[in-house]
Amino acid sequence: LPTRREVHRRHMNLNEDCEFCNAESESWSHDLIKCHFSKGAWKLGLLPWDVIIHVLDDPLAWLIYYIENLSTENFVMTLTTAWAIWFARNEATHSNTILDPLRTHRFIDSYNAAYVEAFRSLQHTAIHHHVEEQNWTRPDTDFVKLNFDSGLTTSKGTGFGGIIRDAQGTCIAWFAFNNPHRLDPEHGELMAATFVMELALDLGYKKMVLEGDCLSIINALKSKQNMEVSPLGNVFADIFSLIDQCDEFRPEHVRRDRNKTAHQLAKHGTYQTFGFDFQSLP
């Protein structure tokens, strides 16, 4: 990690003290665990502090210690927390945001809830598997399915959510996005659809099923009618240009109960933005 201590060791910076607490040299262990902000973020979680605070000089030995002394679930949460702390510190350094342990803790909780929802295993009992199949159907081979939804509009703005899965039901990418503006439902749904299509195309997928629970949006995409006179004409023009980049495109309407994952992500997007594909997961 490019900590101040490491940068100082390479004679690139004369000051190796932590820029946020000035308490000690900014090492990897100080950044991730010992700094006042980092301690606050850890202690707001439910992880065993006596294990977390057991810091070793060697980061590899530190990880091995965690593997040996934490459950799999807690180890995953530990890595997520360390990553979120590092992300927040970088954001504060480069974007002049305020370090807030509570905000970071909320992000970790939201991220973990969305991750669990998005990557829920399909290998359940026969009953659970049957319920899963009722709620979401897999696309044809060589296709990916894109589910999208728009969440509630609040004083914080409008939330969008989207998820991309392949023909095996494996999650490829997902996002929760917060738009600071209060959008009407159809505008929010159309923006969510645009976002998830852009993500799929960026990842190289050109055969896609776009699935959502807003019937008016799906019907408009099916009919491919001229929407220039619509108040959302510019947004429709954007999504039609994305459709033109696809080899095959199938818009499909589903009930809300078959679009639950995208709906949950949209709810998280009401408050904050985050999202990942299979290459950028921490």
From TrEMBL:
GO terms for molecular function: nucleic acid binding; RNA-DNA hybrid ribonuclease activity. Residues 147-268 form the RNase H type-1 domain. This is RNase H type-1 domain-containing protein.
